[in-house]
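Figure 3 (text version): structure tokens given as input.
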């Protein structure tokens, strides 16, 4: 199958590309490398370094003619969204509208859209939170990711484009940026490996649904054929707090490690974990990698990267 992955140079997108290539699909990537890296794009995928808003993007659709468009490109930071909500909506809302228009114009069959189960519901009234819970985001990022969902569903009504919307929990795994503000697992591993104390935002008792990236890849593989017209939570169904993550990372890195408390984050959700029964039923998917195993794999990857990168050099590029 010909699959176009937007954001395929980013953390999650690059793993999805790898999964599709391994399953024998032909993959092209569109990414402007704003947070993604050329080095993340697996060998075997064609990388087009363009912005989803650029004129060039239409030419890529016209030439590659994807059967499936897997849309992972996004402004992916809650913090940036609170600082610049207009930019956030331009990329995540308007950018998705553009991708839907092009997917329809050039004959794609289906769009798979990466949404955010950790932010669109806001602070859920019910836990684990089901997909039909009211949408009440606490951050502009949650608003824009949901706007993207609405454009995907508009694409189905206006053009007959099939879709699956995957609302991920908090993803972690190899290639996540340890210097960013998202991704507490990567940040803690990075700080522990360089002997720095970890900063725990607020009291550290905020709970999220942490999901290993390999499990996300399997959901994206299954969504090629299943989950037609569905909105699906993709998570473990369990909440873990930041102090527990700290302890798990400490064990994987080989502790002991130190931490300090910082201020709580604006727009952060206090407790969210996802009801994943619908994904089980419609995709035949459930998370398989335990937190301990996922963190151990992630720590091993970061250790290997440090061994490959001499001190003082930057692994970006
Ligand atoms: N990481 C998580 O926990 C999580 C949770 C829920 C949903 N998501 C969603 O999954 C997707 C991937 O997230 P990630 O964590 O891998 O983030 P990421 O920042 O690593 O990936 C986003 C990619 O999109 C690219 N990009 C950004 N703006 C672009 C533009 N205008 N044109 C072309 N490319 C552009 C970036 O360069 C980057 O490679 C995003 O849609 C995000 O909203 C992530």
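Below: residues designed for each position.
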């Amino acid at each position: 199958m010909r699959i176009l992955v937007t954001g395929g140079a980013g953390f999650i997108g690059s793993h999805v590309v790898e999964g599709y290539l391994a399953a024998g699909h032909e993959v092209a990537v569109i990414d402007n490398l704003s947070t993604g890296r050329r080095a993340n794009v697996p060998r075997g995928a064609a990388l087009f370094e363009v912005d989803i808003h650029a004129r060039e993007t239409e030419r890529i659709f016209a030439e590659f003619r994807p059967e499936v468009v897997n849309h992972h490109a996004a402004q992916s930071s809650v913090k940036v969204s609170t600082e610049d909500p207009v930019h956030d909506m331009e990329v995540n809302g308007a950018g998705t509208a553009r991708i839907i228009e092009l997917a329809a114009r050039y004959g794609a069959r289906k769009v798979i859209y990466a949404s955010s189960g950790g932010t669109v519901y806001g602070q859920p009234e019910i836990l684990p939170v089901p997909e039909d819970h009211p949408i009440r985001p606490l951050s502009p990022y949650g608003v824009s990711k949901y706007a993207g969902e609405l454009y995907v569903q508009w694409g189905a009504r206006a053009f007959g484009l099939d879709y699956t919307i995957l609302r991920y929990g908090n993803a972690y795994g190899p290639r996540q940026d340890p210097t960013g503000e998202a991704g507490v697992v990567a940040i803690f591993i990075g700080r522990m490996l360089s002997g720095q104390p970890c900063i725990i935002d607020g009291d550290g008792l905020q709970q999220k649904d942490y999901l290993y990236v390999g499990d996300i890849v399997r959901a994206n593989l299954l969504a090629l054929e299943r989950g037609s017209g569905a909105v699906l939570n993709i998570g473990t169904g369990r909440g873990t707090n930041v102090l527990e993550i700290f302890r798990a990372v400490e064990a994987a890195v080989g502790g002991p490690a130190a931490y300090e408390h910082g201020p709580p984050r604006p727009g952060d959700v206090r407790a969210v974990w996802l009801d994943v029964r619908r994904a089980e039923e419609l995709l035949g998917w459930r998370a398989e990698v335990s937190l301990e195993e996922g963190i151990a794999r992630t720590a091993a990857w970061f250790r290997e990267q440090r061994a490959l990168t001499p001190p003082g050099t930057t692994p970006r590029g």
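The pocket of nicotinamide-adenine-dinucleotide is lined by residues 7, 9-13, 30-36, 51-53, 72-76, 91, 95, 114, 116, 118, 145, 168, 170-171, 182 (CB under 6 Å).
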